[in-house]
Specification:
Layout lengths: L4 E4 L8 E6 L6 E6 L12 H8 L10 E4 L2 E4 L2 H18 L4 E5 L5 H15 L4 E3 L6 H11 L16 E5 L3 H4 L1 H11 L5 E5 L12 E3 L6 H14 L5 H7 E2 L1 H7 L3 H8 L3 H10 L4 E5 L1 H4 L4 H14 L8 E4 L6 H7 L14 H11 L13 H11 L4 E5 L3 H4 L3 H10 L1 E6 L4 H5 L2 E4 L8 E4 L4 E5 L12 H12 L11 H11 L12 H7 L1 E3 L14 E2 L2 E2 L8 E2 L18 E6 L21 E4 L1 H6 L8 E5 L4 E8 L7 E5 L25 E6 L14 E2 L2 E2 L5
Parallel strand pairs: 6-7, 6-14, 8-9, 8-12, 9-10, 11-22, 12-13, 14-15, 15-16, 23-27, 24-26
Antiparallel strand pairs: 1-2, 2-3, 4-5, 4-16, 17-18, 18-19, 20-21, 23-28, 24-27, 25-26, 25-28, 29-30
Helix pairs in contact: 2-20, 3-20, 3-21, 4-13, 7-10, 7-11, 7-13, 16-18
GO molecular function: 4 iron, 4 sulfur cluster binding; metal ion binding; molybdopterin cofactor binding; oxidoreductase activity
Keywords: 4Fe-4S, Iron, Iron-sulfur, Metal-binding, Oxidoreductase
Pfam family, one: Molydop_binding
């Protein structure tokens, strides 16, 4: 075996330090364990992060592939890159928006930066985004609107000091096990408590002192009820509100009655009172996809921030803490020119645009005028034009995006380039496949959910037929624009140095973080404007409160519950909601094995299963929405309310059902609630509905 190599786990955004050993005479990792010297986890590591790093159960890509006569066949790197470049150049000759690019929170900071530089500064396309918009955009938008900057104010160091932990629309016991251990340990103290807001019972609910079981899609109503109760109880921190915020009176004027909002959310007034009382203590409010993935995701995130502002919970040991899913979601936001220029420079600000154009040595007119329509809008544009080429990097939109059958159709009609480490549903549609290095094989940095940057390192070599994400991006970029990427290969360190220089003086200042510093300290939290500086709790210091907003104050909001994105009716009388399972992440490509066609396991209340018993066949049925039908296996579970179907979001078939309507402020889709029905499979076509368009619960006719 090789020497121990320190790195960072890439499964989720906790950012745990790992130590890994590769084989001496073979490719691959032999052993992975937690790194006791890493400041994030101090040696803790979850088994799923270890196993998915050391021994992922996916179907590895081992060489470039190109489609010939409808079949993917092996080819050389020269042919693969040449084919991609030729099609991109042809598309750009028609319009700079002729190429769509979908990146990922699975990329390093360096690869994400290079991809954004190529998409925005090389192509000039507005059709560029990342799958992080599918999970974090609403929280990000809310942070910008409230504070003028993205990313949580608190850090992991605040968790032990909190007296109340409110986990809203998330299941960190499954999604973030190491972080959840800190939360559970803190909440277990006699003077602390854990409150979970979730429509279903979960592993996190098992430890809760209170489970507020709201109806799906009503989180905003419940949050406003709690704030209304806080005002009624005269529990507002008036001194903090007066000193550090603006807009509070308008928020109060917009609040519903407690009883009305509680009824909308499907909870008792007593539950509202209990949560409001708990917020008077030092409270951390964590939220996840159950809040974000909604047409009201931004408004609900703002409402949770409002709760913290009103109760003075915006100081160490408290605050609003969005839980990031993918390992480098934050790095993708800060680095990649997706929604802002690097360092959170305003995308449409003329001075910032000129600064970026000057640094990249391109005409400012090449930069797109706006950040684009988000992933759902990008796929719509691929279907209707102008993009003729779509390039996906470390993402699987055919499985991960809502209304997946339409996504499949749109990408199948485009010239599709899939860059990935494993075979996925998207790879199977591709015209060119670019095999990329993965965890344990890659060099660079990532940024965790509390703003800490740390190194990822390779502990094993790869086959010459596998390339690093960064090398692939630069090879394509250099062939298209030799001035943007003047050299055919760039070191990750040189790219990081270019990136951090661009962030100097910004709210997300990385300029004081170097590879040498990361070598010595393992991880450094931004903002870090000097080699000695490291960010802590944000927006407060010895001089008081200061926010990067025009007024220098945090801003309250006035959002109100506005109904469900897709209510139930006589045709679709059940409500679908989705969530994570312990063994499935990132559409499950590293954990579900090869060739599996097992149906997703649905949690349904026993009384609901009895009501629909004629629709079941040996424990299986077909769930149908207005968009598709999926065969499911059924697990009767009274932890799910009557009338609800719970399905795992990372199963590749589930998003054939989900709704592509998006939050108008963040472009994040409403993946958490839609109307469905369960219907018996037809004998002539038993249990073959996975991922297909549907008519009356049966697969729609095709031209095949």
């Amino acid at each position: 075996m090789s020497e121990w190599t320190p790195t960072t786990c890439m499964r989720c955004a906790v950012g745990c330090g790992h130590l890994q050993q590769g084989y001496t005479n073979n490719y691959g990792l032999d052993t992975v364990r937690g790194d006791a010297s890493h400041p994030v986890n101090r040696g803790l590591a979850c088994q799923r992060g270890v196993s998915e790093t050391a021994d992922p159960d996916g179907d590895w890509l081992t060489r470039p592939l190109v489609r010939e006569d409808g079949t993917l066949v092996p080819t050389s790197w020269e042919t693969a890159i040449g084919t991609v470049v030729s099609h991109i150049e042809d598309a750009l000759a028609e319009t700079r928006d002729g190429v769509a690019v979908l990146g990922s929170g699975q990329q390093t900071n360096e690869a994400a930066y290079a991809l954004g530089k190529l998409a925005r500064g090389g192509f000039g396309t507005r059709y560029y985004d990342a799958n992080t918009t599918l999970c974090m955009a609403s929280a990000v938008t809310a942070y910008y609107q409230a504070f003028g900057s993205d990313a949580p104010p608190p850090t992991y160091e605040d968790i032990p000091d909190a007296e109340t932990h409110v986990i809203w629309g998330a299941n960190p016991a499954v999604a973030h096990p190491v972080m959840y251990r800190w939360i559970a340990d803190s909440a277990s103290d006699d003077d602390s408590e854990l409150i979970v807001v979730d429509p279903v019972e979960s592993e996190t609910v098992d430890d809760a002192d209170l489970h507020a079981q709201v109806d799906p899609g009503t989180d905003l109503a419940f949050a406003r009820a709690v704030l209304a109760q806080t005002v009624a109880d005269d529990a507002v921190d008036r001194e903090f509100v007066a000193e550090a915020t603006t807009g509070f009176e308008a928020t109060v004027d917009s609040l519903p009655s407690v009883r009305e909002a509680a009824e909308t959310a499907g909870v008792s007034v007593e539950t509202v009172e209990r949560v409001a009382e708990a917020m008077t203590d030092s409270a951390l409010v964590y939220w996840g996809m159950g809040v974000n993935q909604s047409v009201q995701g931004t408004a609900t995130s703002r409402a949770l921030i409002d709760l913290c502002l009103a109760t003075g919970n915006l100081r160490p040991g408290s605050g609003p803490f969005s839980l990031t899913g993918q390992a480098n979601s934050m790095g993708t936001r800060v680095c990649s020119s997706k929604g802002t220029w690097p360092g959170q420079r305003g995308f449409t600000d003329p001075e910032e645009r000129q600064f970026i154009a000057d640094e990249w040595e391109i005409p400012r007119s090449r930069l797109p005028d706006d950040p684009g329509p988000g992933p759902v809008g990008i796929v719509d544009a691929v279907a209707d034009g102008p993009p003729e080429v779509c390039w996906t990097v470390a993402t699987n939109p055919v499985a991960g995006m809502p209304d997946a059958s339409e996504v499949r159709s749109a990408l199948d009609d485009a010239f599709l380039v899939a860059q990935d480490a494993f075979r996925t549903e998207t790879v199977e549609l591709a015209d060119v496949v670019l095999p990329a290095a993965t965890w344990g094989e890659s060099e660079g940095t990532v940024t965790n959910m509390e703003r800490r940057i740390s190194r990822v390192r390779a502990a094993t070599e790869t086959s010459p037929k596998i390339k690093q994400d960064l090398d692939i991006i630069v090879a394509i970029g250099a062939a298209i624009d030799g001035e943007l990427f003047p050299r055919p290969a760039l070191s990750p360190e040189s790219v990081f140095d270019e990136l951090r220089a661009l962030t100097a003086g910004t709210p997300a200042d990385l300029s004081g973080i170097s590879y040498d510093r990361l070598e010595a300290e393992r991880a450094v939290r931004w903002p870090a404007p000097s080699p000695e500086a490291e960010g802590g709790y944000r927006y407060v210091d010895n001089d008081g409160w200061s926010f990067p907003t025009p007024s220098g104050r945090a801003r309250f909001s006035t959002g109100a519950h506005d109904g469900l994105a897709e209510p139930t009716d006589d045709e679709f009388p059940l409500t679908l909601t989705t969530g994570r399972q312990a063994d499935a992440y990132n559409t499950g490509v590293r954990s579900r094995g090869t060739g599996t066609d097992d149906p997703p396991m649905a949690r349904i209340h026993p009384e609901t299963t009895l009501e629909y018993i004629e629709s079941f066949d040996r424990g299986k049925t077909v769930v149908s929405s207005r968009r598709g039908s999926v065969t499911i296996a059924v697990n009767p579970d009274d932890g799910v309310p009557k009338g609800m179907v719970w399905l795992p979001i990372h199963h590749p078939a589930v998003n054939a059902l989900t709704l592509p309507v998006v939050d108008p402020e963040s472009d994040e889709p409403n993946l958490k609630q839609c109307a469905v029905d369960v219907r018996a499979p037809q004998p002539s076509n038993p249990l073959v509905h996975e991922g297909q368009p549907t008519v009356d619960g049966e697969p729609a006719p095709t031209d095949d």
